[in-house]
Amino acid sequence: MPLLRFLTLLCCLLSLPTYALTIKGVDIPEVIPATDGRPALKLNGASVRVVYLLVDAYIGELYLENPSRNPEDIYADDGHKRMVFHIMARRVSGRRITSAMNEALELNISPEEMKRHEDKLVQLTEMFKGRLKRGEQGMAEYIPGVGTRVVVKGEDRGIIPGKDFFNALLTVWIGENPVTREFKEDILGVESDKSKEVVTES
To answer: Which of 36, 167, 174, 189 is deepest in the core (most CB within 10 A)?
Structure first.
């Protein structure tokens, strides 16, 4: 095989995503490749958010520059972080997503913090405006020294300044009162759920 052809094939293989696990038929990438403005992000954990005991709402995926099983270490770390919402419901409004987040935040942060983040939560709701269908994604990504970048269905909706706001959002998943205890354990990589099929790398 000519050298140029070999190098081209090698580059293509290296650029293909590797999958850490599969949840409900959805492949979850093990690593989000680096870009010019961001290092590679590694999957810390993922889980399905189930509502009303039987409806799969979304798959939550947490990617970190520096993975950890300790929530306090994750909050303190100044690296890049990304929360991904992979929609599993047939259709859901962005306003419903942020409303549920607000309710969860009230269980995890103080009334003073809720008051401090009030305007930012209104901004977040506006950023998630619209409907998302099964298979579509929304994400909140912390950019060190800048703030939380919100992307919905591939569209950049803007940035909310401050690391404290992203940490507040993280408490919904890994705080003292997470959406569910099992969800928190999965996101932290503490244990695996039986509904997940772990893909073994060959």
So the answer is: 174
Domain count within the chain:
1
Number of helices followed by number of strands (H, E) in the chain: 7, 12
Give a yes or no: residue 13 inside a domain.
no
User: Does a structural domain hold residue 3?
Assistant: no
The pLDDT tens digits for 158-200 are 999 999 999 999 999 999 999 999 999 999 998 644 444 443 3
CATH number at residue 143: 3.50.70.10
Query: Which domain range does residue 47 map to?
Result: 24-197
Query: By three-state DSSP, how is residue 157 classified?
Result: strand
Q: What is the mean pLDDT of residues 72-81?
A: 98
pLDDT digits (tens, 9 = 90+) for 23-53: 888 899 999 999 999 999 999 999 998 875 5
Torsion angle, alpha carbons of 148, 154, 157, 163, to 10:
0
